[in-house]
Automatic annotation (TrEMBL), chain A:
<feature type="compositionally biased region" description="Basic residues">
    <location>
        <begin position="468"/>
        <end position="479"/>
    </location>
</feature>
<feature type="compositionally biased region" description="Basic residues">
    <location>
        <begin position="756"/>
        <end position="774"/>
    </location>
</feature>
<dbReference type="InterPro" id="IPR006709">
    <property type="entry name" value="SSU_processome_Utp14"/>
</dbReference>
<keyword id="KW-0539">Nucleus</keyword>
<keyword id="KW-0597">Phosphoprotein</keyword>
<feature type="compositionally biased region" description="Basic and acidic residues">
    <location>
        <begin position="382"/>
        <end position="392"/>
    </location>
</feature>
<dbReference type="GO" id="GO:0006364">
    <property type="term" value="P:rRNA processing"/>
</dbReference>
<feature type="compositionally biased region" description="Basic and acidic residues">
    <location>
        <begin position="402"/>
        <end position="438"/>
    </location>
</feature>
<comment type="similarity">
    <text>Belongs to the UTP14 family.</text>
</comment>
From TrEMBL, chain B:
<comment type="pathway">
    <text>Protein modification; protein ubiquitination.</text>
</comment>
<dbReference type="GO" id="GO:0007056">
    <property type="term" value="P:spindle assembly involved in female meiosis"/>
</dbReference>
<dbReference type="GO" id="GO:0005654">
    <property type="term" value="C:nucleoplasm"/>
</dbReference>
<feature type="domain" description="Sof1-like protein">
    <location>
        <begin position="354"/>
        <end position="440"/>
    </location>
</feature>
<dbReference type="InterPro" id="IPR001680">
    <property type="entry name" value="WD40_rpt"/>
</dbReference>
<dbReference type="GO" id="GO:1990756">
    <property type="term" value="F:ubiquitin-like ligase-substrate adaptor activity"/>
</dbReference>
<dbReference type="GO" id="GO:0080008">
    <property type="term" value="C:Cul4-RING E3 ubiquitin ligase complex"/>
</dbReference>
<protein>
    <recommendedName>
        <fullName>DDB1- and CUL4-associated factor 13</fullName>
    </recommendedName>
</protein>
<dbReference type="GO" id="GO:0032040">
    <property type="term" value="C:small-subunit processome"/>
</dbReference>
Amino acid sequence: MTASRAAKSVLALSQQEELVDLPEDCPLNVSEDEEDSDGERKHQKLLETISSLDGKNRHKVAERSEASLKVSEFNVSAEGSGEKLVLADLLEPVKTSSSLSLATVKKQLNRVKSKKTVELPLHKEEIERIHREVAFNKTSQVLSKWDPIVLKNRQAKQLVFPLEKEQSAFAPIEHVLSGWTARTPLEQEVFNLLHKNKQPVTDPLLTPMEKASLKAMSLEEAKMRRAELQRARALQSYYEARARREKKIKSKRYHKIVKKEKAKRALKAFEQLRKVNPAAALEELKKIEKARMMERMSLKHQNSGKWAKSKAIMAKYDLEARQAMQEQLAKNKELTQKLQVASESEEEERGAEETEELLVPDVVNEVQMNPDGPNPWMLRSCTRDIKEAEAHEDPEELPDPVAHEVSESEGDERPVAEEEILLKEVEERRSLRRRSELSQDAEPVGSQETKDSSSQEVLSELRALSQKFKKNHQSRKPKASSVSTGHQVQREEPALEEEEPLLLQRSKRVQTVEELEELEKEECSQNQEFLRPGLKGQQLERNPNNLPNAPKEKKKKEQMIDLQNLLSTKSPSVKSLAVPTTLEEMDDEEERDQKQMIKEAFAGDDVIRDFLKEKRESMEASKPKDVDLTLPGWGEWGGMGLKPSTKKRRRFLIKAPEGPPRKDKNLPNVIINEKRNIHAAAHQVQVLPYPFTHHSQFERTIQTPIGSTWNTQRAFQKLTTPKVVTKPGHIIKPIKPEDVGYRSSSRSDLSVMQRNPKRLSASHKKQLKKNSVD
Amino acid sequence: MKVKMLSRNPDTYVRETKLDLQKVPRNYDPTLHPFEVPREYVRALNATKLERVFAKPFLASLDGHRDGVNCLAKHPKSLATVLSGACDGEVKIWNLSQRKCIRTIQAHEGFVRGICTRFCGTSFFTVGDDKTVKQWKMDGPGYGEEEEPLHTILGKTVYTGIDHHWKEPLFATCGQQVDIWDEQKTNPICSMTWGFDSISSVKFNPIETFLLGSCASDRNIVLYDMRQATPLKKVILDMRTNTICWNPMEAFIFTAANEDYNLYTFDMRALDTPVMVHMDHVSAVLDVDYSPTGKEFVSASFDKSIRIFPVARSQSREVYHTKRMQHVICVKWTSDNKYIMCGSDEMNIRLWKANASEKLGVLTSREKAAKDYNQKLKEKFQHYPHIKRISRHRHLPKSIYSQIQEQRIMKEARRRKEVNRLKHSKPGSVSIVSKKKKHIVAVVK
């Protein structure tokens, strides 16, 4: 057996040899020598194998016996094993080559070193974990879109289920029409009409006409129009807002100014119109005339209305009321004034222009003119007109004389008559002054005035204002000294001048204390209208000096209930005679220590006094109160300032019985609440329930009744709406994104699954890895 | 001489028709109606008492199964139809309005482990101990036809639960792993595992329908994303979770019924702390189902009772039990929010009112107004001790009652021990764990 096996192995070996040696024989010039050597080697091998059959050195390392320069790549001979390899030997070839190449080699080496090796792929479990984490983050993001809805539903006062509204299905008209034909004559008629007008009966929803109109307007045009409309709307809203804002302004003065400005503008416009388009101007004039007529007809500004009458009564005492009345009259005057001037001017344009040279102001003119007029009524009205116009010009100048008049006359004349008299006087005075001014100033402005009465009015107003200003300046100084002399002097002066200097003078006088006192007395006796904040402040300053005693006394009282005193009081229950004195002393010491500690701890706030005060208050509150049953005016005179007599009061006073002694009477450091009722407590809430943060909130909710006994039907229904309403017999389905206005995900879960997106981008993975490491 | 007479306009007091209510002039002056708080308090007290008087929740018992009822399913389109699977492999379809069994199928050999209806209501699926998934038609076979499933899938392992997708022809089974099946294919299109253990139940999220939740017997709850075919997160609790149920109105909320007598409501985005721990049962909780309004849920327990919990409260608002009801294995809240069904060990399915004292049938508007008013009064005065006591009072069977007492003592003892440990250890060495977190062992990413 063994022999045959050996033979086999030999055969196999020889074959192997051939195979192995084939590469060695690769060089093409195969010489016979080599063939010979081959044969020799084979022979050698054969010998070896045979020798190895005896089982001794079976594993003999193949070794080369012949020396050869060529080293086989299959067998490394260990012939030179005795020599040591030195690094220098290895580097020799490098040295021989140029230094430049050495540098390049180094560089290459470095480059190789700097390049990192490719990372090992992650562990499978790790990868799965990353997958899961990514998926979880994604899904939680998806889910968090439900947060607001969930919150809303949780807080909702009422939820009605099922959530989805049943939509009443709208069938398109053509569907309805298709299965329907006109039968009655009326229907047929209607249909005929429809057909005649080419109304669409079936699918297309627009008539040909509509389509044509749609085509007619291009997109750009439409856009432009829309933009225009938008602008117009914006402008409108802006103006509206502005008007609203202006309307809100309460200042009368502002409105007056605005009105005047408007009048001026209207006038200007009218002038322009007259120049440009006389016909239109005439038309305008007619309108004005008509308005005037209407005004004359009406009783609108005649001082005869309810308001005017009330004002007339007030006018005696109130400056403003007087002014208001006069304003109204002036308005009437203004509105009813005839615009003859314009017509005059026209005439003048036609004819004589000499009138322009007459530099006499209107007022004078008119007054002079009027006597010529035949109508005494007209005469009267004319004069009044002028007066009122003047009054309108500067109403502030009037009040004082009025007051004067009123105080002097004091008759039971009707207020209107008074007014007239008054106005006449003013008028006289004014006209006098006017004349003098005219003579002084001789302003050219007057000469250039147009005949238009209203424009003149404006100008004259300006003038008057400037005069007023001047006058004020002039009069201020002398007044300061003169006012103190008495009322007589003041009366002669215009009201405005009186007012301001008075104030000025007062503020000056205040500087000395005695005077102030006097002044205060005076003011008390007179009227306190002019008491100004500054004065008050001074008064207040002075007060503490005057009354220093009261607070001091209080302080003393406070000191009487002092901490020391309180601490020294001992509870009576603690003391007992049986306790030996030494112990007591000990106690005393301890107590003192403790008190000292307490005192130190609560150095800032007086706890004990607070406590005592609290206790006293609670005692007071719990004491039964006396009942007073006296009826004022019963059996004696009653009324303001009268009090029932003490005798009566004593008789009808029911004294409350002394209650049982308080439980904490002998416990100085305790307050026992005696109000608590055990029987009621069983029905009372002991702990503040959860959503409430303060007991007052809870009490309020309890105190508001919800029943229909206390509420109207509507309120009752609102108060008792149930939290969840379900329809009987309806299936309530889980909430859907469509129910709450979300778009439902268009992709179905199945399709997504089939695409199987179980892949992650490399960057994603890296990021996740980082996260997981963190 | 002028004679003054009383004259009234008949419009103010004459009814238009005989059926109208009499007009009653009212004066709302508060001085005429004093003592509003005490009067309302008395009304609330009476309302509470009446509620307890009228609290008769039990409606019907459906009997016919010959073994314990193991699973229940609602019909998605019909309120009156209910399906039930028993431990002997029988499936019955019931009509609730007639309270009768319409159809009986011998579906499996051994337990019917799970049953679910298709979203359209035309067919249903069952899984059983015989390693098969069967699809059945909802309508019975015609005359002379054999009762046969539409499809039968023979699996390699036992399936312990099944649930159908809410919109698409997909369903999920669980057993050794969670498989997702296309209805048309006999192989699962996707199967997901995380660790090796038997999964007892799997549920699709009704709102975000690609989400699944499952619970396994190695105490964990695993969430899956079907679209990405990967599990998402795992939370390990103290004890095994029997089943979970998703809130149908809040996409990320689900409740787990646990063996440790508690139910845990989780926000699935933050699994490390349950939103609420609901504890009132005295034995393992076997099943849970949400009301369709998402405001409450019902749980079935091994302690022979079912309880109704408001989602935001840890105490139950109601407990139902009868003498004959044994361990309740499955429970469902009907989709009109009115009734609760439970299947129990002693072969019966019981029908309860969800609101114990509710009057059934159509209410007149005045009845409705009175009901609403009483409800509001009860709510308003709920913190008052008398009212609270009456409204909370329930009669319990002796076994449950004594167990509650026992557990109270145990809980107190545990608490005391904990406090003592904390007191007698170096400050900082014993950490205080909140009650909610105590039952969470770990969250695995």
